[in-house]
Design a protein that fits this description.
By secondary structure, the protein is mainly beta. Helix content is 12%, strand content 32%. It has 3 helices and 9 strands; from the N terminus they run H-E-E-E-E-E-E-H-E-E-E-H.
């Protein structure tokens, strides 16, 4: 169950709710972006305001289990994201959090005050370029996306060695082993 701090609950109960997004991409390098107008420090990491955070899905609260993916768009002027995508970012962690603004317009950045709205993995990265801007589109997996996945499992000694070098469960299966099985009364 999600716990909400009293400070966060007070802002949520008010008539004026404003928020900023904090996005962390854990690729070959870690990237921290915020939608706030200046850099912010959250949990020891500096989230950069001019890092190119361009578009993101709003937070969704649902009591229905759905298979919808989470989409993030980052401006990629220097080709940094394209370089990361070429190194294969599929399966790399992505997290998006929301920090509410207090009555002074400052983000509430205590760990207890920040709400997590997406934690998942990159599923479908792509780059678009319309001659005005180059955008990196990161689609995160749905928490339910694994329900359709079919994983093949090779049941051989070589197949098990790929999973674990110390597992010996298939070592004697294909060897010439004779086992006497007694049938009937003994």
């Amino acid at each position: 169950m999600r716990t909400i701090s009293s400070a966060t609950q007070a802002v949520l109960d008010s008539d004026n709710i404003k928020m900023v997004f904090l996005m962390k991409l854990e690729f070959a390098n870690d990237y921290y972006f915020t939608s706030y107008h200046s850099d912010v420090v959250y949990d020891g990491d500096t989230y950069v305001a001019d890092g190119g955070m361009f578009e993101f899905d709003p937070p969704k609260f649902s009591s229905v289990v759905d298979r919808e993916a989470y989409r993030i768009v980052v401006a990629d002027q220097g080709g940094v994201m394209a370089g990361e995508f070429s190194l294969n970012v599929i399966g790399k962690p992505v997290s998006v959090k929301v920090a509410l603004l207090d009555s002074n317009g400052e983000p509430m950045l205590n760990v207890a005050d920040v709400l997590s709205i997406y934690n998942g993995f990159v599923d479908a990265p792509s780059i678009t370029n319309d001659f005005e801007q180059k955008l990196a589109i990161i689609e995160g997996t749905s928490p339910m996306s694994d329900l359709d996945m079919v994983r093949s499992f090779v049941t051989s000694k070589a197949g098990m060695d790929q999973k674990s070098a110390i597992d010996t469960s298939f070592d004697e299966i294909y060897d010439n082993k004779n086992t006497t099985v007694k049938w009937g009364k003994t």
